Amino acid sequence: MAKKGSDVRPIVKLRSTAGTGFTYVTRKNRRNDPDRMVLRKYDPRVRRHVEFREER
Questions:
Q1: How far is it, in rounded angstroms, from Cα 52 to Cα 25?
Q2: Confidence at residue 28, expressed as pLDDT on a 0 to 100 scale
Q3: Mean per-residue pLDDT, 34-39
Q4: Which controlled-vocabulary keywords does the entry list (predicted)?
Q5: Distance between CA atoms of residues 35 and 28, nearest Å
Q6: Which of 2, 3, 18, 33 is deepest in the core (most CB within 10 A)?
Q7: pLDDT higher than 70, residue 4
Q8: Are 21 and 15 in contact (CB under 8 A)?
């Protein structure tokens, strides 16, 4: 059986680059994406889509 705290799919925080401190929490596959994730998502504090970067 798979472990809950699997090392292949760690939980990562995505922090807004708009400086609001807003975060999303998600999982990623470390084998497919070994680098830090960068996604464009909605930041409700500035009411627009901005880049969110992974922090560990």
A1: 11
A2: 94
A3: 95
A4: Ribonucleoprotein, Ribosomal protein
A5: 10
A6: 18
A7: no
A8: yes
For residue 36, what pLDDT is reported? 95
pLDDT on residue 12? 96
17 found inside a domain:
yes
Q: Is 34 part of any domain?
A: yes
Q: Which domain holds residue 34?
A: 11-55
Residues in Cβ contact with 11 at an 8 Å cutoff, skipping those fewer than 6 apart: 25, 26, 27
pLDDT of residue 8: 87
CATH code of 25's domain? 2.20.28.120
- Total count of domains within the chain: 1
The label of the residue with tokens 């292949």 reads: 8
CA–CA separation, 2 vs 40, rounded Å? 31
β-sheet bridge partners, residue 10: none
